Fold each of these.
Amino acid sequence: MNMGEDKEMVSLETLRKKMDDFAKARDWEKYHSPRNLLLAMVGEVGELSEIFQWKGEVTKGCPDFKEEEKIHLGEELSDVLLYLVRLSDVCGVDLGKAALRKIELNAIKYPAPKQTNDHCVGGEDSSNKIKLNEEN
Ligand SMILES: Nc1ccn([C@H]2C[C@H](O)[C@@H](COP(=O)(O)OP(=O)(O)OP(=O)(O)O)O2)c(=O)n1
């Protein structure tokens, strides 16, 4: 399979199930306690940090990374994600639902700035005006 051409979406549920199967197949469920998984995840965050350590600022898209560094980056990001998904599962938290709810809470806590009238269309009644975002 050519990974670059595979545009299939990967769900958190797929990852959750695969991690559960992985642990069950090895009889590793006894090791996958919340505390162990949290520590394992933090260890992987450390490994992820090492990739960026001493590099100075890294620009968006990591254009200066060699091909093998990009692959390594994907591996460490995956380790963090997989332990996070597994940790959420063994804690009985639906990570997808919790994350969507948190995004909503974030939007309430940090409201987007209101657009000025100059950027509104829709007549004089301001309640019907469509707010246009300059970035759109
Ligand atoms: N008890 C374990 C051990 C590993 N894994 C899985 C989750 C991670 O995706 C990956 C972590 O494996 P390693 O501990 O071997 O870590 P690395 O892959 O980072 O190897 P290294 O630390 O040698 O770079 O394997 C797991 O689920 N449960």
Note: The mean pLDDT is 87.
Amino acid sequence: MTADLYPIYKLINQWYISPGSNGYCSSQQPGNAVSRIWSLTQRALRQSATRTSKPPGVALKFILGPAVLTVSARLFCHIAYCEADVNNNTPVEVVAKSPAPEFKWHILWEFVKPQLFALIGAVVLAFGAAILNIQIPLMLGDLVNVVARYLREHTGNYAHEIRGPALKLLGLYGIQGLLTTGYIILLSRVGERVAADMRKTLFASLLRQDVAFFDANKTGQLVNRLTADIQEFKSSFKLVISQGLRSITQTVGCFISLYIISPKLTGLTVVVLPCLVGAGALIGSFLRKLSRMAQEQVAKATGVADEALGNVRTVKAFAMEERELQLYAYEVDKSCEINENLGAGIAVFQGLSNIALNCIVLGTIFAGGTLISSNELSPGDLMSFLVASQTVQRSLASISILFGQVVRGISSGARVFEYLTLEPTIPLAGGGRIPYHSLMGRVDFMNISFSYPTRPGHQILKKLNLTLPPSKTVAIVGESGGGKSTVASLLERFYDPTSGVIMLDGLDIRTLDLSWLRGQVIGFINQEPVLFGSSIMENIRFGKPEATDAEVINAAKQANAHRFITGFPDGYNTVVGERGVTLSGGQKQRIAIARALIKNPSILVLDEATSALDAESERVVQEALDRATKGRTVLIIAHRLSTIQGADLICVMSNGRIVEAGTHLELLSKGGLYSDLIRRQRAEGQQ
Ligand SMILES: Nc1ncnc2c1ncn2[C@@H]1O[C@H](COP(=O)(O)OP(=O)(O)OP(=O)(O)O)[C@@H](O)[C@H]1O
């Protein structure tokens, strides 16, 4: 007989204890709980066998009491742990506070629409699993009634009688398992596809934004939206559909079952359960706060490590390893302290909830036992009641966790959607193109005034007028911070002028196709070229994705880069490392020149292209540049005299305007600002 009861306990154990397979609960093996229940059960059965005159409810109390007490305690530990665990795993964005963006349902709908069938399938299966979950306590009750009858009467064929309800229950478990598998597969498919679509759309939207957008937003924050925010949104989306639906259905269904089984006991539960869940949610929210603090502290410590490792050359150059270690250790110690407090909070929470829950189960068994004694309830009903009330309790607890998750999911989603709908002020495509054969390359800056969008009150250019004649080289010189590079940025249309017009061959560049302008007309080389962490071949091809290997090699030859590239063991397939870290400054610059030349631009902008190089590198790079500028309209932003010697026209900038213009000799003979600059440079020992 006892052997026949074992599967019941095993089922209970499986059902309630196995979910805690991580963290706290996993430290106490499910097997231990089973054996504890088992030994208690055997003792109870032995006692009941010697006291057959007692009503069956009393015997059942001995069997079910310890079982349910242990199971319930474990269940609540699981809930408590999960609540802390969910929060503990939540990525925290440590960013400056800004007004909360709005969640837009119609955007979510656009992403969900293609997955609608799979989503409906998942919802139906999850709903089915929840309905079956409501049936399970009732069936367990039937099973226990057979056991109780056998205990009481000791007649009939036990194995035969138990087979029916046991097989039914087994079938129910099987179907429930299948439905659960089905909805999880479908839901994870929907979640992953929605998240992948969001990532691609958000990345495309970010790439479309103006340079001004990137001036105002930190790269880390943007990457965070692509990664952590979408991850958080996906988790919440899946959780709300699976657990939300399941928990609400189970709560409602099991409550109805409870009422049908025993309105009196249900009344008792209605009073006590919400208090318990409410108190749990309150303590849970305190633990959540603590957990968030811990996460923020971990993020701070990570930030210190990230900065030190990201700038390891500077750290080493200043022998600051020890100081960085101290900074990191300080932040890690703080995070350790907060996490310890969190651990203590969880421990107290679990202890209190164990006591509260056990008292409730005890109360239910006591009240249920009394009802059994007065024949108002059968033992099976008490079993059903206990299991159904556990289901309600579990569902309510998961709904309370879900509330937090919904809030987090909505705010993550809102952050993602904010940038999804953002339209750039300078559209990348659209507008006219000038046919290649008729493109002259004349540029006119007409009355240009400009302030950077991030500093609207600070005017950089003030009614600037400048002409770049076709196939001529114009150099701009002037004091540092005077706005020379800003002129180049406006030509590239990284920004639009506040007032005035920039013309290309007599056409306002705002009417021209921007991707054509940047991709085919203007080549841009600046002081610190950024290479991608791929091969040299790929880096040069970045200028013209459809270029053949021969074109790449030709561009490299023009840029004086072919010799050093072929000197590497892997030649053009040499991987240059993150941002080109494995190359020298001069080598990087020559690859950048090749990258600009491969698109055969009509206009070339050289923004202090050689100023970061030593004399020898500068000579080689300058040689490449002299060759590259032939036959093109060139704008040189320069500091050093050597870089502007070949210029047809030199313009001196001061106070946001061009104040002097002429050839080198003309300007020197005038003895104005240009002469001052040259004199100063010579005095500082620059050539
Ligand atoms: N992205 C930006 N956002 C806001 N202000 C900027 C930005 N870039 C430059 N500035 C400001 O605009 C002014 C002109 O900068 P710009 O880089 O054009 O000067 P520059 O003449 O090229 O200087 P340098 O010769 O030192 O390179 C400076 O005061 C600078 O601080």
Note: The chain has 23 helices and ten strands.
Amino acid sequence: MSPRERDEHERFERPRRRGSRPRTKDRPTYDEAPIARVVTIDRGRYTVTAEDGTVVTAMKSRPLGRQGVVVGDEVRIVGDQSGREGTLARIVEVLPRRTVLRRTADDDEALERVIVANADRMVIVQALADPPPRMGLIDRCLVAAFDAGIEPIVCFTKADLGSPDDLLSLLRPLDVRVVVTQRGGPLDELRDELRDHTSVLVGHSGVGKSTLVNALVPDADRATSHVNEVTGRGRHTSTSAQLLALPFGGSIIDTPGIRSFGLRHVETDHIIRAFPDLADVALDCPRGCTHLVEEPECALDVAVAEGRLPAERVVSFRRILASRATAAEY
Ligand SMILES: Nc1nc2c(ncn2[C@@H]2O[C@H](COP(=O)(O)OP(=O)(O)OP(=O)(O)O)[C@@H](O)[C@H]2O)c(=O)[nH]1
Ligand SMILES: [Zn+2]
């Protein structure tokens, strides 16, 4: 460690008291350490971008303890932030997360894992054919988005191979926005949805995510190889999500690692929040009502019978609720 680095170390590690609201005696504060964003993670090495765009490799430092750091996190870093090859900064603090996308780790495991932090939009990518679209999978992604308070949109790809009409009629009662794309086709509508947002892309292998990402971020490959220069590791060994800045504002987080969304942790209350009209009516439900079709006195049924709610909206909401219980793997 150079003398300059050591100085910086001490400056940030010395506990400081602030004004009238002192922190715990032994806990250092890093309020002046620069903020960076985690763009990808590979075997304990965190690639972060500083506010000026410098790409820095960092590791977790002791003050974090067992706290997780995920892609999309905003962190404070100390140490060498030059980004030069072979240098390593340290992550000393994770800033409060605005959103977290999580999943139950496994069906036989009660653990929840955070996948991505601070996304405010989820793009559910499904091909119209090859591989065939699966409404059940869209439903499960919607549940995950509603649970996390992340606004979902559905992006149907490969429009040259199939028609979106049937799926559109299934989605219409859910009030979810949809864009339809095809390779080489216009992307203006999708760009409008992504601009100035942090969007997490989910979808299984082969749906055309890379094709989309490359069209949206023309230098995505270059950015990836730059990361490789820094970490000295190959892209394909990583199962981490990766955050890419969009040239028109905002960023996207590609998630090759998401193979499944265990959804056992998701509570009905979290889903119904995304359906304000139903939530209003459900205030009249008996205590503990699950709002599922077998509930004898669910207020949603009463409202449908009295013409206060469209039946198809309640049916769609129940399909979403029920999708939590279906197989996690996709
Ligand atoms: N016909 C057609 N094929 C497409 C379209 N978009 C992508 N493809 C093809 O579909 C295949 C999968 O596309 P990718 O972009 O690699 O899909 P991905 O979702 O990134 O898949 P992984 O890389 O395995 O995660 C490739 O052969 C693409 O050329 C499209 O709009 N129409
Ligand atoms: Zn009910």
Note: The pocket of zinc ion (ligand 2) is lined by residues 282, 285, 289, 291, 295, 298-300 (CB under 6 Å).
